[in-house]
Each structure stands twice: as C-alpha cells, then as structure tokens.
Amino acid sequence: MTASQAALEAVFDAAVAADERIEPRDWMPDAYRAGLVRQIAQHAHSEIIGMQPEANWITRAPSLRRKAILMAKVQDEAGHGLYLYSAAETLGTSRDELLDKLHSGRQKYSSIFNYPTLTWADVGAIGWLVDGAAITNQVPLCRCSYGPYARAMVRVCKEESFHQRQGYEALLALSRGTEAQHAMAQDAVDRWWWPSLMMFGPPDDESTHSAQAMAWKIKRHSNDELRQRFVDIAAPQAESLGLTLPDPDLKWNEERGHYDFGPIDWDEFWNVLKGNGPCNEQRLSKRRKAHEDGAWVREAAAAYAGKHDGRHGNDNHGRDDAHGRHDEQHTHTHGEAGA
Ligand code: BYC
User: Fold this and answer.
1) How remote is the CA of residue 37 from the centroid of ligand 1, in Å?
2) Secondary structure element (H or E) that encloses residue 252, with its range
C-alpha cells in the first residue's frame, strides 16, 4: 500500500468510526465497494422478484378495496427495487450489469420468494411476517455507513411499515371470520413462519460477511440478533391475531428476556439458495421473460432520450456548459430520491 493510499484509508476509517456517512465521491476500500454492491444488488433483486408471489393474487383479491391495496403494495416493491438499483449505480455498477447477473444466476435474491402463494391468506402472511422481518432487518440499515443506501432505506422502511400493517389487518379479518377462513389464515402462517426466520441469513457462526460488514457499519446487528428481535415482536402479535406459530419450543424465557425458539432447518435454507426451492425456476424464468418483453420500452426510452439530447446540442451553442449543468442536476436528483 502506498503512503497516499494509507492516508486515504485512514480518513475512511476515521469517518466510519465517527459515524459519518461515506458518499459516492469519497475514497473507499475496494472490498467495501464490492461488499455494498453485493448486498444492495441482492436486496434490489429481492424487491423486484418479490413482486411475483403477491401479484399472483391481484386478479383474485376478495374485494375492490383489497385489490387496490395489493396493487399499490406491489408497485411500492418495484419502486424499492429502483431506489436500490440507483444506490448501486452510485458505486459505479450499472443496472444492466446487475440485472444480467440476476438473470444468469450469478447474484442472489432472498430465499423467501422461492415459496408459493397458495391461498389469499398468503398475501396477509407475507405482509405480516415477510414485511415484518424485512422491517426488522432494514430499520438498522437506515444508519448504514454508506449514505445513498441509508437514505434509500428511510423511505423503504416507511412503506414497509404500511405493508406490514395491511398484512396484519388482512390476517386478522380472516382469523375472526368463518371457521374455514380462520383455518386458511393458520395454514398460511404455518407455511411462512420458518422461511421468514431464514430471511435473516445463516447463523452468526456460518455468516461469511457479517463480521466485516459490521466493522464497516454496513450492518449494525448480526443475523441472529435480528432474528431474535423479530421472534420477540411476532410471538405476542400472533396471540393478538388468535393464531399460533408452528413451533412447540416457542416460549418466553424470563431469564433471557427473550422468546426461546426451536431449531431452524438450515438444510432447507441452503437447498433453496442452491436453486432447489419450490419456485426458484418459475421466479427466474418469469423475470427473464418480463425483461425480454420490456425490451421495446427500454429501446423507446433510449431513443427518446437520444432525441432529447440531440435537440439540446443543436439549440445550444454552449454545449459543454449545458452538459455540465445536466450532470449536476442528475446527481442532485439522485440525492433527492434518496439514492
Ligand atoms: N436469501 O454472510 P451472510 C425484501 C446469502 S426483504 C438468499 O450472512 P450477509 C422484500 C448471502 O448473500 C429481503 N441468500 O450474508 C420484503 C451470502 O451469499 P453470497 C431482502 C441469503 O449479506 C417484502 C451467504 O448467504 N432484504 O426485499 O451478511 C416484500 C452468507 O450469508 C440469505 C435484504 O436483502 C437469504 N435470506 O447477510 C418485498 C436486506 N441470507 O452473497 C421485498 C439487506 C444470506 O456470499 N440484506 N444469504 O453469495 C441484508 O441485510 C443481508 O444481506 C442479509 C444476509 C441479512 C440478507
């Protein structure tokens, strides 16, 4: 390492230690940049793929009100994906490159979205448990050391809270409904509970990235800490819903001040990550098809932007100035959008 690199690294380390934000133009270690791109890309892909299981129920929502809410929620997930791809772009990685890695299976998305949505109650269970787990994981990311990711998370978390409440409310309606509706809600919770706990990632002693990510203040808590926090929140909520969680070992532990819970089937988790979950193939092939079907939209948008740029150049003799201003505005918009 050269002396000037060591000086840059010292400035970076001091900023992280002082809880200051690292911004796109700041010097950062290559591994910090690569680690962020990995996590943010995986997060963005999860948001986009996560639209599929819920969108499955838009046409069959039980009322106009439920349909409108679900459509808004699925659209929100698309928006989250876009903030996150923009955040990754500030690290010098294009959206095309990331999508290519998703479509070719070189980058991951959350294990949770490889499970099917079999009944309407699954929409409620996803809102309550999956969005609930997502909020638990993502609220601390609002304090992530990388500015654009942290700012994107503020808005994402506000919207996720609404999603979580809608899921809880939908499940409550079913739980208090007919016997068949109650049974449908219980069945959905039975299927989504364990995969929701797996969302937090492998146990701490098997987590490859946690130690470094926590040292750099990308992650603020370990996978197991967040998982425990989620169980502590969800267990009393299940009681209020009049539903049970499918874990005979779930029990309040007075001494620890936490709920104890049973063992997680990590073989299932790793198997889903390897591509062998119930819906891995379906999710990826649908995503690839959506991307191919959208090619004409991207081409039209690029042609329109090209035409717009050309007009700018022809109309304006000070082309360089105009471009300089354009770039500045562009950067500014990124900041405003929280990414
Ligand atoms: N699924 O070292 P570790 C949402 C991978 S919510 C798939 O602990 P890290 C949404 C991990 O990538 C879901 N893969 O990793 C909610 C690594 O493999 P690579 C998205 C997983 O990064 C509602 C290996 O296992 N949220 O979007 O320190 C509606 C070792 O793990 C999973 C986020 O992404 C998993 N569950 O910790 C719609 C939040 N867990 O990369 C949408 C941001 C681990 O070395 N992400 N792996 O090949 C994070 O907080 C962290 O990345 C994680 C994992 C906690 C997920």
Assistant:
1) 12
2) strand 251-253
